[in-house]
Amino acid sequence: MTVHVPVAPTTTELPGRQAVPDRRGTRKPPRPRPERGSSPREGARLRELSRRQVEDRLGELGDLYADTSGGGPWAWNEARGAFLRRLAADARRPGFSLLIAETTVLTGCAYGFPVRGDGPWWEGFDGYLPGSLLRLAGSGRLFAVSVILVQPWVRRQNQDRAWNLARRLQSRLLTDHGATAGVTLVNRSDARTVEALRSWGWRCIEGDTPSTSPMGPFRVLVLGT
C-alpha cells in the first residue's frame, strides 16, 4: 500500500504577509510566528461515507486527488483515473472505511480497512509484517491505512499538532475501528511520502520479516505502537 500526499508547494510565502525593508534597503520577509491555541482549520468536519455515498461522490474525490497531485492537464487526468480505479478496488475489501473532511468544500479524505488474522491473506502485505503486527492482526486490532489525501498546507505546516488534518483523519480511522495500530507500505523511492508520514507520527520498520530484505521495494510504516 502507499499513502498519497501532495507534491511540494511551489512557494512557501504566506498569503497576506508583506515583506519589510531591512537596514540595507533590501526587502526581507518577516519571520512567521508560531500558531497558538486552536487551529483556524480545526473546524473541518470529519465524517464517514457509506459505500453508496462514496459512489455518489467519486467525481469530487477524484478531483481532490488530482488537485493535490500537481502536474499539467495530462498528468491531472491520469492521476485522477488511477486513483479512482484503486479506490474502486479497495472499496470491495471487507471492513472498508472512508472518511472525508469538509467545510463548505471537500478538503481531505483518508481510507483503509481492518487487517484480520483469519480468512484470505490481504493483497500487498504478505511477507512484510513483523510478528508484533501479525499478533495485532490476529486480535483484530490492526488497520491498514491505504490513502491519506490532504491539501499542501497540511504537509508543511503544524505537522506535529493534534489538530493537523492528516493526524485527525488517521486517528479517527483507527479509533472508529478499535485499532491499536495502523500500518501502510510506501515505495522505498518515495522519500516525500515517508517524510510526510513521519511528521504525522508514523515510524518506519526495517527488516520486517526474515524473508524481506531491508532493501526491498517497500518500507513498512506503523502508527500507534
Give short descriptive properties of this protein.
alpha+beta, N-acetyltransferase domain-containing protein, two-stranded antiparallel ribbon, 7 helices
How does this model look, in words?
The chain has helices spanning 51-56, 58-69, 73-90, 131-138, 152-156, 165-176, 191-199, and strands at residues 20-21, 27-28, 45-49, 97-102, 106-115, 142-150, 181-187, 203-205, 218-223. With 225 residues, it is α+β, with helices and mostly antiparallel strands. The protein has a 7-stranded mixed sheet, sandwiched between helices. It has a two-stranded antiparallel ribbon with strand order 1-2. A hairpin with a 3-residue loop joins strand 4 and strand 5 (106-115). Helix 2 (58-69) packs across helix 3 (73-90). The chain is globular. Residues 1-41 and 208-213 have low confidence and may be disordered.
Please give the structural blueprint.
Layout (H helix, E strand, L loop, with lengths): L19 E2 L5 E2 L16 E5 L1 H6 L1 H12 L3 H18 L6 E6 L3 E10 L15 H8 L3 E9 L1 H5 L8 H12 L4 E7 L3 H9 L3 E3 L12 E6 L2
Parallel strand pairs: 6-7
Antiparallel strand pairs: 1-2, 3-4, 4-5, 5-6, 7-9, 8-9
Helix pairs in contact: 2-3
Output the structural class: alpha+beta
Low-confidence stretches: 1-41, 208-213
How many angstroms separate the termini?
19 Å
Describe the global form.
globular
Per DSSP E runs of 2 or more residues, the count of β-strands stands at 9
Mean pLDDT: 76
Q: Please report which band the strand proportion falls in: under 5%, 5-15%, 15-25%, 25-35%, 35-45% or over 45%.
A: 15-25%
* Secondary-structure element pattern, one letter each: EEEHHHEEHEHHEHEE
Number of helices: 7
Side by side, the strands of the main sheet go 3-4-5-6-7-9-8
Helical residue percent? Answer: 25-40%
- Note the main sheet: 7 strands, mixed
CA gyration radius, whole angstroms: 19 Å
Protein name: N-acetyltransferase domain-containing protein
Biased composition (Basic and acidic residues): 32-45
Region (Disordered): 1-45
Organism: Streptomyces violaceus
